[in-house]
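Data card: per-record layout.
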Amino acid sequence: MHYSTAPLSVDRLAADLPTAVRSGEIVPVLQPQIAVATGVVVGVEVLSRWRHPVLGPIPPTVFIPIAETTKAIHELGRLMVTASCRIAAEWQDRSTPLDVAVNVAPSQLATETFYDEVRDEIAAAGVDPQRLTVEVTEATAIDDAEDVAEKLDRLRDIGIVVSIDDFGAGHSSVRRVTDLRATELKLDRRLVAAKTTELLAREAIDFAHERGMRTVGEGVETADQLARLHRLGCDRAQGYLIARPAPQTEFASWMRARQPA
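The structure for this 261-residue chain is written out next.
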């Protein structure tokens, strides 16, 4: 998807965003995760893409922060949770179950409604809750971590994985991992990309494994980076080397092409 290079008005996008969520302009795309040791596709992350009817594709780096500063993040979040549960159910029905990860903003976690919505969508889709991963984004700090952790316990109790996204950047620190009682650690692309950060990546992976957490390296773009994650014992990998985000139909075709003849 090619994004416009023209200047974008934040006010215009903020005004258009609620309508975009309700009208189908914002769509889910899938990026696969592989098991580092085997190369087998074990999951996907569901990401949102905005196809504005006038301005064209809007980068998520532009519209997600806008959504997070407005109430639109709650509608957008519900849309992505619904899509994630549906996608997980579809692959469950294909007898090729995949773990499905969806990003959640701290402002969503602070509401009671979010947790009810997640359980409602799981029930409606008929999907195994263990197939769903909630990724806590690092965009903003969490004001009452203990309250959020207690709410997240309800999701963990039914099998949902709680992941700390972008670990090593922003607010995604050891404190956030322990405060929220996370069960997965997702290494920021900056820890994955450079050989100079190998020691930090190793420490993060060891820290997670000592606590029984699953690890994912994101932003993998080269074979050397994937080999490094393998050497460090990282469980999963995600990035352009494996596949770019794609709509469900294209992802399904990509998966078929990977199947042995």
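Known properties of this structure: Residues 17-249 form a domain with the TIM Barrel fold (CATH 3.20.20.450). The two ends are 30 Å apart (CA to CA).

See the next section for split statistics.
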